[in-house]
Automatic annotation (TrEMBL):
Residues 1-30 form the signal peptide. GO terms for molecular function: endonuclease activity; hydrolase activity. Keywords: Endonuclease, Hydrolase, Nuclease, Signal. It comes from the Bacteria. It holds the Pfam family Endonuclease_1. It comes from Streptomyces doudnae. This is Endonuclease. Residues 151-179 are annotated as: Disordered. Residues 170-179 have a biased composition (Basic and acidic residues).
Length: 267
């Protein structure tokens, strides 16, 4: 069952007075996400609500670190449930391209879909090991070729169109998802940064302002991810996915899907 969500969005007003005195109108940017209320605030998130900054991040880390883990082979069937096409139960919706593809076409051949690590597994060298390598909150079904094009690139704006990428772009050092997936990607990356803090045998994953992070446990660019979080709020598909992971598989939640405003509160 989807969490009850109450969201109010701020509006930006431009005054005519500024124009009258010859001033330039301000550039419009993504509107900060307003405070949200969910059915989990008095239970699951009760120790985090009301906090900001490092205190909020620490509280969320403690909360979401309590999870059930699955094997990498089990991820195949899990993605068939988490990424199911709401209009066709025989298909999954692919990240980056937005294509609906048969669940049975999972594998490594052209025309198949495979398991995309949005936080590239080489960034921190966690590979496919049970833990960050199998965490469903950042694993998505993706077209084999589009996934290969993304590789382990950091995320940023710009580049040329990706073949069959649904509007996604790529250049030599970064990947830009299609508009409808930008917020999803941002919230998955920032979930990983809160969940994996280096206290459980894995690297301390953190967002930064760079690309070309290579094997370092960092993923950029934070300023762009924050903008994407604002521009592309959580969708019904994303919210349902969060619920399926919580109720059926890992029993932990991505807090930035429930509370996208917490991105700005921490970073």
């Amino acid at each position: 069952m989807l969490a009850t969500r109450i969201r109010s969005w701020k509006s930006v007003a431009l005054t005519s007075a500024a124009v009258l005195v010859g001033l330039s109108a301000p550039t419009l940017t993504a509107t900060p996400a307003a405070a949200t209320t969910t059915a989990y605030d008095s239970t699951y998130y009760k120790n985090a609500v009301g906090k900001t900054g490092t205190s909020l991040k620490s509280s969320l880390h403690t909360i979401i670190s309590s999870q059930s883990k699955i094997s990498y082979s089990a991820v195949w069937d899990a993605l068939k449930a988490t990424d199911q096409d709401p209009n066709n139960s025989s298909n999954v919706i692919l990240l980056y391209s937005g294509v609906s593809r048969a669940k049975s076409l999972n594998g490594g051949d052209v025309g198949d879909w495979n398991r995309e690590h949005t936080w590239a597994k080489s960034h921190g060298n966690f590979g496919e090991a049970t833990g960050p390598g199998t965490d469903l909150h950042h694993l998505r079904a993706a077209d084999v070729q589009v996934n290969s094009t993304r590789g382990n690139l950091d995320f940023d704006n710009g580049g040329s169109s990706v073949t069959n990428g649904g509007g996604s772009k790529v250049d030599s050092d970064s990947f830009e998802p299609r508009d409808a997936d930008k917020g999803d990607v941002a919230r998955m990356i920032l979930y990983m940064a809160v969940r994996y803090e280096g206290d459980d045998g894995w690297a301390d994953l953190e967002p930064n302002e760079k690309v070309n992070n290579g094997s370092n446990p960092y993923m950029g660019k934070l300023s762009v991810l924050k903008q994407w979080n604002e521009q592309d709020p959580p969708s019904a598909f994303e919210e349902k996915r969060n619920d399926v992971i919580y109720n059926t598989y890992q029993h932990n939640r991505n807090p930035f899907i429930d509370h996208p405003e917490w991105v700005e509160a921490i970073w």
